[in-house]
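Hey, resending since the last one bounced:
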Amino acid sequence: MRILVTGGQGFLGKHVCRILKDRGYEVHDPSHENMDLMNKEFVEWVFKRHHMDVVVHLAAVVGGIGANQKRPAEFFYQNASMGIDLMHTAWQFDASKFVAVGTVCAYPKHTPLPFKEEDLWNGYPEETNAPYGLAKKMLLVQAQAYRQQYGFNAIYLLPVNLYGPGDNFDPRSSHVIPALIRKIEEAIQHDDREVNCWGTGKATREFLYVEDCAKGICDALEQYDSPEPMNLGTGQEISIGALVELIGELMGYKGIFKWDESKPDGQPARMLDITRAQENIDWKPAVGLKEGLKRTIDWWRTNGSN
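The structure tokens again:
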């Protein structure tokens, strides 16, 4: 089976490609050909040349709250356009399956905990990342529509916030865990006694180790064929304040954390109901948050901070 993985050189994509290859699949990562997913003609050329059986769509324009606030139009247009055209092309060229990887940002702002898949349409997403979340959620609409009209086997997965070695540590676009690790490491290096953090620290989040997510995507490719979306997470939440303290402890930081409440918290709370994944793909994340943070910190100190 030939599998096209968009975003195969990305943080999550590298793990997905490795696992699929280990399982004996022929994996094609179009980034090796400088594939522009906004160029429909080039996308069609890739399908004509390689005759793909399955598509795993991971490529996305992503970033933290700050990046989403600065580039909402770009986040909406590029994510919606590349996903919609890619799924349509996969159907046109008779792919047997399409795995669309969405985002927890698709959920409404005030979704009750834990987030259940049936809650997806019960309100508007958190405003700071709504354009991104809605663009990715359109792939669920498309997947269900193409399944209904054409019998196209497209599935839609909803991973929670990811982290792990190799994450994006660029302060202009990173998510909360790599951003905090970098801030704290710089404070340690400069002997700063204070680290400034965005928001109030009261918002809660759930974090999934990147390799666990990659395995879940590969398992869903092999085992899940339902039109209903499926969450991938841990089913456990932590406040941002507690997360900051935990990272500081693991890194040996002795200073204090100050909260800039003029900055947004983002969505008040996030934690997924993972019952559907447990029942359909025997979902069992292997790496706990503390261990995953240790691995991520060690990777940054060895590879990224030089």
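The domain at 2-164+207-236+269-287 is CATH 3.40.50.720 (Rossmann fold).

Sorry for the duplicate.
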